[in-house]
Amino acid sequence: SSNDTFPTAMHIACVEEVVHRLVPALQVLHNALDSKAKEWADIIKIGRTHTQDATPVTLGQEFSGYAQQLANGIERIELTLPKLMELAQGGTAVGTGLASPVG
């Protein structure tokens, strides 16, 4: 039935987009932020916490935090791929295999 075909098609489409477009684009952004973190390692700025001034930090430290958050996000996205690759194809109408050919 189409009740397994549509979810299968959606899973395949999601994996294709995540692997070939989303993750590569996020990696480019991560690399750019990481590069700026290194480039700006010696630029001192005022830190901020809860909308108030705080102890000084470098602009590089701030951008390294952004880069790390992006790396964490990429990892979480990649961890979803094995579950997206599970396909509910061919399980018969209610998933019991009743009335399906043997084998």
Topology, element by element:
Layout (H helix, E strand, L loop, with lengths): L1 H38 L4 E6 L2 E7 H26 L19
Antiparallel strand pairs: 1-2
Helix pairs in contact: 1-2
InterPro entries: Fum_hydII (IPR005677), Fumarate_lyase_N (IPR022761), L-Aspartase-like (IPR008948)
Organism: Hemiselmis tepida
Protein name: Fumarate lyase N-terminal domain-containing protein
List the main descriptive attributes of the protein structure presented here.
alpha+beta; two-stranded antiparallel sheet; elongated; single chain; 2 helices; 103 residues
Verbal overview:
With 103 residues, this protein is of the alpha+beta class. It has one domain (2-84). The protein is 62% helix and 13% strand. It has two helices and two strands; from the N terminus they run H-E-E-H. It has helices spanning 2-39, 59-84, and strands at 44-49, 52-58. The chain has a two-stranded antiparallel ribbon with strand order 1-2. Strand 1 and strand 2 form a beta hairpin. It is elongated. It starts with a helix and ends in a 19-residue tail after the last helix. 2% of the residues are buried. The mean pLDDT is 92.
